[in-house]
Write a structure and sequence with these properties.
- A 3-stranded antiparallel sheet has the order 1-2-3, with no helix packed on it. It has a 3-stranded mixed sheet with strand order 4-5-6.
- A hairpin with a 4-residue loop joins strand 4 and strand 5.
- 12% of the residues are buried.
- By secondary structure, the chain is of the alpha+beta class.
Length: 138
């Protein structure tokens, strides 16, 4: 069993910071919307991106699937009442010369063994695809 610890601090007015290990991230905890800092919903989507990219790397090593780079775009849809993420759609691109069958296997492993992917898939609709990097993104 793995365990994780973070510490977050909020100052009056909404200035907030979270610390994990030796790294800190400032975030928006105002009652409105600060367009400079990520809000909690964006941090949730960031966690999904981090999980999926970590598993790109992990399963690249385990399954011997070489890649040059990867990127992910994520779109979250939030219900207002009650407030909750209802749908999360991702588009994961990987710059690799592997065939489509191996790409599909890689994607299945990323989804099956991701802590955040599994958690969010139980809470909302999680859908998306993993594709080869296109020339327009290089």
């Amino acid at each position: 069993m793995s365990e994780y610890n973070i510490k977050a601090t909020l100052k009056q007015g909404g200035e907030a910071i979270v610390t994990a290990n030796a790294s800190s991230i400032e975030f928006d905890a105002t009652s409105g919307r600060d367009n400079m800092l990520p809000n909690p919903a964006e941090l949730l989507l960031t966690s999904l991106a981090a999980c999926m990219l970590k598993n790109v790397q992990r399963y690249s090593e385990i399954l011997h699937l070489p890649y040059r780079k990867a990127q992910i775009s994520i779109h979250g849809i939030r219900n207002e009442n009650p407030p909750a993420m209802s749908t999360i759609v991702y588009h994961l691109e990987v710059d690799s010369d592997i065939d489509e069958r191996k790409l599909e296997m890689w994607h299945k492993n990323i989804l099956k063994f991701g802590t955040i992917t599994n958690t969010l898939a139980k809470a909302c609709k999680l859908k998306g695809k993993m594709v080869k990097w296109t020339e327009q993104n290089q």
